[in-house]
Each structure stands twice: as structure tokens, then as C-alpha cells.
Amino acid sequence: MKTLKFLICACVSYILFSCSTEHIPSLPVIHYNSEIAELLIVQTDTMAQDTAIINIEGFYSKNFPIKDTIVLDLNKIVRKFNQTEFAYKLATQNNKQEFSVQTSRTNDTVFTYFYKSKNIPPINVATVVSGNCVGLYDVNYKRNYRNHIRLWMFKNNLKPDSLLIENMNSLIRQFNFSGHNEYAKVSGNPPILKTLKGTKYRFNVNVPGKYFYLYAAQNRDSINSFIEKKISEGLKDANLSTAEEFTCNQIGECGPNCLFMIGIDENWKYTLVPLGIVFVDNMAPNIFARGRRPNNRRHSNYSYSGLAGSSFPSSWPSIIYLKNQNILVKLPEPSTPLTSSVSISYGSFEGNDYLGYNIPFYIDANGDVQTIAVGSYEFDARKIKKGECIRLHMKGLHIGDNSIPLSAIDVRGNKSISSLSISIVSLRKNNYDDNDYDDLDSRISNLESKFDELE
What we know:
By secondary structure, the chain is of the alpha+beta class. The chain contains 8 helices and 27 strands.
């Protein structure tokens, strides 16, 4: 009897335990927050191996394994769409786009993505009244996609609709809005100067503040250092109106320089407005004295031309980003080179210390080099062909090492000086006999007597 009761209790306990540990499946939870365009898919069943399929008809379709929680930002997803096609879809559907979400254990759930239009207000743009620079424009405000939209509509057999074109243009501008106050140079090439020091400028610009400075920069660090220096000095030497003539007191960095108007108020709060772009070229040409050129054809790959065939990478940045002012300035590349090189080597030659040596020089110039000098000879670099051989008669050289002065000047007058070492050795025949010089003293004596007779 006791054994029977024990078996019954054991069975009941097993049944209860089995019931309590039995797996109860649950479905994934899908939630879409339309305010921030965020899709949330939560896996509630740790033992399930579900997948989710998100489909935006004509634009996007993707499968995701649901392991834990999936968070998707629809605003980021739509940025990857074809902008013209998506702009047309939104413009014809009141800025709305439906999308569906399906999991391996649930049916399609349809949601509506609503694109919230952004207002892109114009930014503070200066006008150059006088001075050597090109002005800037508002990149975000000036973006224009109308021509592209018209062509797309024509190719897709759509009728012209001016209101639709304007709505699509506005949407594509918003798609490409960086969120920054973005500036770029107007049409035309910025001037190239050797220095900015002493250059004078006038601008039509509104900048809050009481004390104003003109400053040229390539990066935010130099701007911050300049502002800190002026504040520490008590804001001396400041202009008191933006309408005044400003004189630049900097030499400038080689490459593109952006001119800024800096306004500082009594509480040291400052505001910057980009004004224009100017290039500075204060870098002298690089001279590569290559030495003697090999004669053997096995050395045909020897480089005689310095940096010929290669380009100088820009050492300056392509943008200036001022985070605390939310300003981004695009810096252009120069229309003509600001960096240059000269390569000089020499070949085999003959001669003597008395009459001189006829030396072949191989010269190659790249970039904005204007004048090249080798010893006392001067050349127009623009007329020298790449790797051209120029024979120069050099006097004043001697057996041993000789230093030939070199110089190069670019179109802005930047000059570099170097030298080329040329070694001269004496070559004599070795097939002489010691007896040939036994009567050397008598020969010399005979020559001296003949000179005496001539006198």
C-alpha cells in the first residue's frame, strides 16, 4: 500500500513538473514609432529562429535574422534610395510611403513612413566689395536639381508639371542637406599671391559684435589660437565696424586660405563669417641634384627627372569645419600648380683644367618653375623639354670634386638654391717606359733655351 501511494505521488509530481517546463512559443513583437521613423522588432521566444522581411515597394527589400532586438532608422534607409524616384513618390503621395514588415511566423503588417520636410534657411553670406579674393556662396540654398528632374520626367514619359518639379527639387535639396552652414567659392579662380601681408579688403557683411578682425586660415586650430590671443591682449588693434577697410597682417599658409570676419562682443562671445578664398604660394621649388647619369643601358629605368611623372599631393585640407559655429567651408584646388620641382643630372664629358669642360646636363622642370640657373648659365624653364640634354662649357673646374651652384625661381619669385657635385678624374695612358723620361731634364733645358732665343 505504501509502495502504491509512493508511485502515485511520483507520477503526479512528474506530470506537474512536465507541465511547468513545457515550452510555450511566443511571436515576435513589431512596433513602429512614426514620430522618429524607428522600427523595432523584438524576439520574445529565445528558442525560435525567426527572420523578418522588410519591404518598401520599388526601393528596398531585406531579410534580417531576429536573434534579439532589431532597431532600424527609416530615415537612414531612405537616404540610400534613388533620390529622384523617391522624391517623385513623396511629392505625389503627400510625403508618405507605405512599407510592410513580415516575420516567418506572422503575416504582413503595413506601416506608413511620413517624410518630415525640413526648412533650409539662407545663411549669412558676405559680399566682396574690394580686395584680392573670390567670394563664397550658400551651398545648401543654391542647390538646384530642376534640370535633372525635367530630364528624368521626360525619360519616364511624364507630363511637365511646374509645381511637381518645384516640390521634387525641394525634397532632393533636403535629402542632400548636410545640416551645416556650408560655403563654397563662387565661379572663377581664386587669385594666387606670394603673401597676404599688407593686402587690403572691404566687405559687405553683417556680423554681431563690437570688435572685428580679419583672419586668414586653413584650419580651426589657428582660428581658435588667434581669438584666444586677441582676447588675452585686451582686444587691441580691432576694427570697430565691418564696413571699414581691413588689412591682413598674416603671410598666409601655402595653399588655399579662407578669409574670416571675426566679431567679438563685450562678453567675449564671438561669431565667425567666411568671406572669401585666396591662394598663397610661398613655397620655393624643390631642386634634386641627381649626380652623374649612368651610361649603361641596363640603368635605363634610372630616374633623372626628380618627381617627373608624379604629382605633388595637396598638403592642405579640403574643408574647414568649425563645430562650435556649425560652419563648413569647402577649400578648392588651385587652377595652376603651387608646388614645383627641378631635377638636374650630368653625363660623361672630356676636357682639361685649362680649356674647360664641355658637360652635358639633363634638366627636367615640373610645376610653376620659371627660371633655372646652372653655374653662370640661366634658362627659361618653360622652354626646356622634359629630360632635355643641354651642353654647357664650364671653366674654373679642376681635378677632384667640384661644386656647381644651382638655383630655381618660380612664377611668384620663390627661390631655392642648391649645388651639384661633379668629380673630375685624370685619365692617362699606362703604356709608357721608364726610359722615356731619362733625358727629361735635357729636354726642358733645350726648350728654355729656345724660348730665350725667341725673346
